Amino acid sequence: MGTRVAVENTSGRGFFQEYTPFVKVQAVYARQDSFVELGAISRDFSDSHLYNLAIPLGIKLEKRFAEQYYHVVAMYSPDVCRSNPKCTTTLLSNQGSWKTKGSNLARQAGIVQASGFRSLGAAAELFGNFGFEWRGSSRSYNVDAGSKIKF
């Protein structure tokens, strides 16, 4: 859920054709079922839950041609509400147990994403995607590139 306002560059000059500032609401909920390890020193983990509410705000810059498209997104994403996962861990050999907590990531992130698409006629396409998230406590990045042949 969010809102955006597109501003089109009609002059034909510049690297991008459209500039779109935006604000979003992003909610995540995840559940890990309980499980038991196998082996000589196995442990039992109770189920756990995570939820996070973030409000990313940023700008999307894009350019479209007849047979290609690319865009870049830059955003700042503060986490406004979070519940980190925690569970009870039990060592099955002696029934000793303790609380295990999930990592507490930094609550602010800088995110950059870029995508490109190029048509190679009616039968083939090329695409590429890149994403990077920087937090004070972690970094995350991914790259995806490929092609598609239609027949």
Describe the structure.
The chain is built from no helices and 14 strands. The mean pLDDT is 91. The protein has strands spanning 2-4, 7-8, 18-24, 26-32, 35-36, 43-45, 48-54, 57-64, 68-83, 86-91, 96-101, 108-119, 124-135, 138-149. The protein is elongated, with a radius of gyration of 22 Å. The chain is mainly β and 151 residues long. It holds the Pfam family Autotransporter. Residues 1-151 form the Autotransporter domain. This is Polymorphic outer membrane protein G family protein/autotransporter.
Would you give the CATH topology? Lipocalin
Q: Which word captures the global form?
A: elongated
How many structural domains are formed by the residues?
1
- Poorly predicted segments: none
**Mean pLDDT metric:** 91
End-to-end separation in angstroms reads 37 Å
CATH architecture: Beta Barrel
Strand content: over 45%
Assigned CATH superfamily: Autotransporter beta-domain
Structural class: mainly beta
From N to C, what is the helix and strand string?
EEEEEEEEEEEEEE
Helix coverage percent: under 10%
Radius of gyration: 22 Å
- Give the number of DSSP strands: 14
Major sheet summary line: 10 strands, antiparallel
